[in-house]
Structures are given as structure tokens and as C-alpha cells.
Amino acid sequence: MDEFAIIEPEAPDDLAIDVSRETPTLPQPLSPRIMVVANQKGGVGKTTTAVNIAAGLAQGGLKVMVIDIDPQGNASTALGIEHDEGTTSTYECLVDQYPIIDALRRCPDIPGLWVLPATVDLAGAEVGLVASVSRETRMKDALATFFEKYYVDYVIIDCPPSLGLLTLNALVAAQEILIPIQCEYYALEGVTQLLRTINLVKGRLNEELVLSTVLLTMYDGRTNLSSQVAAEVRRHFERETLDTVIPRSVRVAEAPSYGQTVLSYQYNSVGAQAYVEAAQEIAERGAKSF
Ligand code: ATP
Ligand code: MG
Hints:
37% of the residues lie in helices and 12% in strands. The protein contains eleven helices and seven strands.
């Protein structure tokens, strides 16, 4: 592809502020909720949670944007979005300050769901941004510009398993954090460090930030370990932990290899239904407190 080609945004009219639409079945937040899915521990279900919660919210009639801020690009893959090197992506929005709308892609399977894809280029963004002015606020600034003209109910940001500059950009841009916790031994390991980072960001860069949601993932009802971990997490995060628990399920793990969320892949599976319920819980809680 010609590296300087101008890429036409795909039907941004859908996202225009005044566009009329049918009444969603899920409650709409009063203002856009920007949620970051973070946990620096790898493989705990961040991406799976980000894409399936986003799908659940969109399926409830809400407008949702997923921002993939992980160079692995797993969320882009799971949502069926092309993200080869050179695709206009999160990298350009952060490093070259492209408007988000120029890189936004429509999720092919789910109406109302839009994706800012990540490519491997994003691995270089940490270095590319190091000497830049306002390096921690690039995502926040990009979203502010987006919301001047366009509207979505939810922005869900999928983070890499680290607390570097990419995750920091997400934490500065967001109001809320959703932490997925895998129901395994060492589940809470690293959460303390994440909480420390959150407090640091809160104190210096983003007053608004709150840990609003904890979601238990990969729960295996046959093991004592899962129920012990779940009980411990609920003790630590009594208010934040959703009642819905995501079970370990083969369908959930298979869906990304078809470029699909588990909702579009097997809607009636237990995994898909758990994510539908979790999305509903998030929407209902949010309508009360945001
Ligand atoms: P990373 O830290 O690398 O970004 P992550 O936290 O985003 O990882 P995922 O990629 O969502 O984690 O999940 C890790 C692995 O576990 C994946 O192979 C995924 O398919 C699988 N997985 C996630 N949730 C479930 C589930 N409920 N049941 C079965 N497998 C799951
Ligand atoms: Mg991931």
C-alpha cells in the first residue's frame, strides 16, 4: 500500500453526535464511559473481556469503540479487523497525532461496534514517544478531539500486559478501570502494583480515574481453587466485583481464531451468555453512578 495514501474513514456519519437511532435495550450512560481493561499480568483475559464486553454492549444497542493499545493486536484480530503493518492504527493516533476517526474501522459482525486497530508498529511507540511533549496525554487528547464531533456510549481500551507508556496513555485517557482477574493461583499477584500505579496516575495525571469494575475470568466450577480465589477477590474488592463470573469455556478460547467474538461465534454458549450478562451488569451499574 502507498504509505501516503489517504484512507477514507468508513461512514463516520454513524457516529455523528446528532444521529438518531432506535432505543437501546441496555441503559445508556449520561456521558461516554471510557473504560480501560488493565492488568499487567499476562494472559488473564484482558483482551477476551474487552472484545466480548464491547460486543455485549453493542448488541444491547449502544455505540461502542474498542481501542487496541497492545502491539500484539489481539483485540483487532478477535474483532475481525485487518491490522497488518502499515494499516492506519493506534500508532498513528499516538505518535503522529492522526485523528481517531481516520483510523477507525467498523467491526464486520456487530453493528454499532467500531475498532481502532493496533499493529506491531505500536511496539515502537514507547520509544517514539519518549522524547515527545505531552507523551502521556496523547490518547486523552485524541479522544477529546473525537468527542467534539462524534459520539459513542462506551470506549473500551485493551492494554498490553505491562505498565509502560501505552498503558499509561490508556489510564490517563480513561475514567474507569476494569480489572479482569483469572481464577488461578497467584491471581492477586501484581494487582497491588497495578493499584499503586493507578494511585500515582490519579494523583498526578488523572483525578477522575476510579477502579470501578473487577471481573473474575476463567472460573472453573469443578475446582476448589477457583472458588477460593473468587472469594478472596470478593473480599478485597467487595463493591467492584461483578456478580457475573466468566467460566472457563472452549468456545470463548476458539472464537478469536475465527476473527469473532464469542457472541458472534456461538451466542448460546455459556461463555457468550456470561459476557452478555457481565455487559448488562456494567451498563446497569454505570447508569446509576456515572
Ligand atoms: P495478554 O496479557 O497477552 O494481553 P490477556 O490478558 O489479554 O493476555 P487473553 O488473550 O484474553 O488474555 O486470554 C489468554 C488466553 O486465555 C487466550 O488464549 C484466551 O483465548 C484464553 N481465555 C480467555 N478467557 C477464557 C475463558 N473464559 N475460557 C477459556 N479460555 C479463555
Ligand atoms: Mg491481551
